[in-house]
Amino acid sequence: MSLKTQHTRALAALVTVGAVGAALTGCSTATGGGSGDGNTLTVGTNGGTGMTAVIEKFEADHPGVTVKIQDSPESYQQVTATQLTGGTAPDVIQVFPGTGNNVSVKIAGEKGFFTDLSDESWVSELPDASVDLLSAPDGAVVAVPMTFSSIGAIYNTAALAEVGLTAPTTWSEVLQFCSDATAKGKVAYGLGLSDTWTTQLIPYALTATLVYADDPDFVDQQVDGSASFSDSNWKLALQKYQEMDQAGCFNPSPNGTAYAQVQEAIAAGTTLGTVSVAAETQGIESVSGTDLDLEFDPFPATDDAAETYLSATVGPSFAVNAKAKDQDLAKQFVAYLAEPATQVVYATAYGDTAALPGDEKQEGPVAGVVGQFVSRNTISTWPDQLWPSTTVQPALFDGVQALFTGQQTVDDVLQKMDAAFVDGAK
Amino acid sequence: MTEVLNNPATAEAAERRPSRPRPAKPGPSHGPRTPTWFVVPAIVVYALIVLWPNIQGLFYSFTDWDGLGTSWSFVGIDNFFDVLGDPNTLRAIGNTFLITIVVTVFQNLIGLLLALGLNTSVKSRYVLRLVFFLPVVLTPIVAGFLWKYLLSPTGTVNEFLGSVGLGWAQQDWLGNPDLVVYSICAAIVWQGAGYSMVIFLAGLQGVPDDVLEAAAIDGAGSFRRTVSIVLPLINGAIVINVLLTLISTLKQFDTVFAMTKGGPSGASETMATIVYKTAFTYLQYPTALAQGVVLTIIVGVIAFGQFRLTQRRGELS
């Protein structure tokens, strides 16, 4: 082989490597933040339903500006955490309140990934219950909330009327409701524990009243060791869960049932309702394919309806990427998201209650109910948003499934949750 | 040996003996040589998207990296101690082996029976081969969701059992921790048996008809011909099938995740699903990486052991 040929081959190889490298580099930067150049704003969403409904007006109010949604509903946390680490995250990022995952306000906020928004005008409008959940550990508010997400009972109104039943407002009425529904050949509450996220819904709904209503600082007490799941009304909540099962409240074999089947059964009217997140009113309606009339109510845990607290917390929230090139444009967009009209449009499309509705009125089966509880401040935050470790929630998931298979007792489940909590708090 | 070499007749015979073909020398007389740098782009891409992430994964399994940011510190083999001391991981390893054994046995047995049945002159054999192969073209995740609905408490399987008077056999197939692993095995076997069947059919095509005819003339029945002639002659296909089934089942993820996500309460957790959960649900990335390394070692050791075993027997040749 001649020297010239060797050089030609070496050069060709070098060009090839360079071309591949350039292509890969191009891939990695083309999707990321920093694309905000005064004309384009990138927004990362975990399901873009609400955001899609509001960007058109922003673009109309800001001629020449384009808002690009980067939606990753199946793997949002993984994608966004990787982008944050690599410096390629969108300019505006959907974040999760409190702790809980790597794209949550406190965990990612502690590492300085978000811009401090404390001086923005809308911050003074934030409900008291939301401020801490939207603040980084240093106290800086870093995100604007779009909805209050709540957990309650969703009923098919027509199915209720068909069997002559009404939504229960006390615990005794819940058990009677189950008995009456069974007598009418209906399932009272659909339960699809095969999809593990649904395992937590009834415990959260019950502990909102039984634990966190009287003891909003319960998690802090757990952290300092003066309280535990095992020695609290969490035990009563899980016992009530079992009591519902024994009373025939649920469909047969909840562990083998998928949540989608519960949605279909409610839409068909063979199941009267379920305990779920309020946004599922949209999900069930979309499964039915028709204008299904659904009712959303708080889920009672005691025999005094006035004692019932709603399990509600800050829903989707948006932060500004600290590495966004056009900080002003990103802040303008977030301020736009905080406007009452934007909030109502977003929340209605999302199927939940606007977090900052101002004087705007929101229609739908959820907003009125949740609004009452928020205004009375009779809401309890979803506890997992305050838990110090991501392993506590899976311990609850596994535990509830094991309760239904008889593999674990209530005490077993709570001990495992305590162990996960203590381990995570270290 | 010296005697042999000194014997002119033997030496002449050795000269006449056909020698092992030698590799052709590169040069103008053997056509243009393919430039080796053609392979560089593939190597670069492979290195960037396969080798480098794997090396990084191995590296981070010895750290306490939190998956966010670039700070980390070495923790030695603590993550591996955590993995091997975790009862959930050990249960996942046990389930993985159980699923692997059950699927390997039944998928190959059913595949072999299908192949033997369809390697005949039955008129509809081509249609039947297609029908039995159809599940293979489904992606495992789709097959998993399909079976999730078929095996649900109110699903088709229980409805069918009820409609034919077998109501007593209705089960909570995916909700019963004692049954769930076998339900998953059934779904995997349903999807994979057609694949095994095709490999067995290819092996059966190589069995000489005259040998089978001679055995038949000698009075051997069909069972005897199958056991004494067919099976030894398709040993290569059996080995390949077993090897492929072992490896694919050891790293099984899609079907399990679609059907149960490892539940109820971890009863159907496998190594692959627990790696996913540890990383993306518990956010314990270094532990998940350590689990991944353990899974890789297990799959590697089994595959290598099987390969060496078959190589020694000369079966693959």
TrEMBL record, chain A:
The keyword Amino-acid biosynthesis does not apply. Residues 1-22 form the signal peptide. SUPFAM superfamilies: Periplasmic binding protein-like II (SSF53850). Pfam families: SBP_bac_1 (PF01547). InterPro entries: Bact_solute-bd_prot1, SBP. Keywords: Signal. The keyword Signal applies. This is Extracellular solute-binding protein. It comes from Herbiconiux gentiana.
UniProtKB/TrEMBL annotation, chain B:
Residues 1-31 are annotated as: Disordered. Pfam families: BPD_transp_1 (PF00528). The chain crosses the membrane at residues 35-55, 97-118, 130-150, 179-204, 225-247, 288-307. Residues 93-306 form the ABC transmembrane type-1 domain. CDD domains: TM_PBP2. Keywords: Cell membrane, Membrane, Transmembrane, Transmembrane helix, Transport. It is found in: Cell membrane. Its main location: membrane. It is a multi-pass membrane protein. It comes from the Bacteria. Belongs to the binding-protein-dependent transport system permease family. This is Sugar ABC transporter permease. It comes from Herbiconiux gentiana.
